[in-house]
Amino acid sequence: MRIIAGEFRSRTLQAPMGLATRPSSDRLRETLFNVLTPRIAGAAFLDLYAGSGAVGIEALSRGAARVAFAERAPAALKALRGNLANLGITGGFRIDSSSVAAALKHLSKENQRFDLVFLDPPWDAAAEYAATLGFLGGSASGLLADGALVIAEHRRKEHLEERYGALERTRLLEQGDAALSFYGSSLGLKSETRGTHSSQVES
C-alpha cells in the first residue's frame, strides 16, 4: 500500500498481518478521494474499522485538520501506530482501541463533530453495517457536522439500505468486487449529489 497524494505522497504503508483485516486497495482509495477532494482540507475525519489507518492517513496527507481512528484488533492497531510513527505524524489524530460502537459513544459524550465519516467493516460482518449506519443516522447523529458525508466501503454484491434513520444514500460507486455507498442527511448535500445518484466506476 502507498499514500496516493498530499504531504506523504508515495510513502508506503504496512498492512496488518493475517487475514482478519482487508485493506482498501490503492485504486479504491484514489476513487474515494477523487470524490472527497473538495471537502478534505481542514475537515474533521472519522475512520471506523480503521485497520492499517490507510484511509485516515490519506486524509491527513491531503490536509484534514484531524482524524479519529477506531480499531480494536491488536495486529491492525500495531500496523496503524507503526504507520503513523514511520511517517512522523505526532499530532492531529486520536486512536480509540475499543469497539466501533463504544468509540461512537465516547465521541458523542465528548460532543465531537465530523465532516467526513468512513467505515469499512469486515465484508462478512453484515450486521456491522446496519448497526453503525443506523447509529450514525439515529442516536449518534450529533457526531455529524452540517453537510457531513458518511461513506461505507462494502462488497459490491452486499445490499445496503437506501436509508438508515436520517441518513439517505446519495451516491453509489462500484469498482471490481468493491463498492462505496455515500450517505448524507442535509438538503444541501442531497442537492449537490443528486445528479450522480447510483453512478458506477467500472473495473
As for the CATH topology, it is Rossmann fold
What's the rounded overall pLDDT mean?
Answer: 89
CATH class: Alpha Beta
Structure classification: alpha/beta
Descriptive report:
This protein is α/β, with parallel strands linked by helices and 203 residues long. The chain has a single domain, classed as Vaccinia Virus protein VP39 (Rossmann fold). 32% of the residues lie in helices and 25% in strands. The chain has six helices and eight strands, in the order αβαβαβαβαββββα. The protein has helices at 26-40, 54-61, 74-86, 100-109, 126-136, 187-193; strands at residues 44-48, 66-70, 93-96, 114-119, 144-155, 163-164, 167-175, 178-184. It has an eight-stranded mixed beta sheet with strand order 3-2-1-4-5-8-7-6. The longest helix has 15 residues, at 26-40. The chain is globular, with a radius of gyration of 15 Å. The two termini are 19 Å apart. Mean pLDDT is 89; it is low at 187-203.
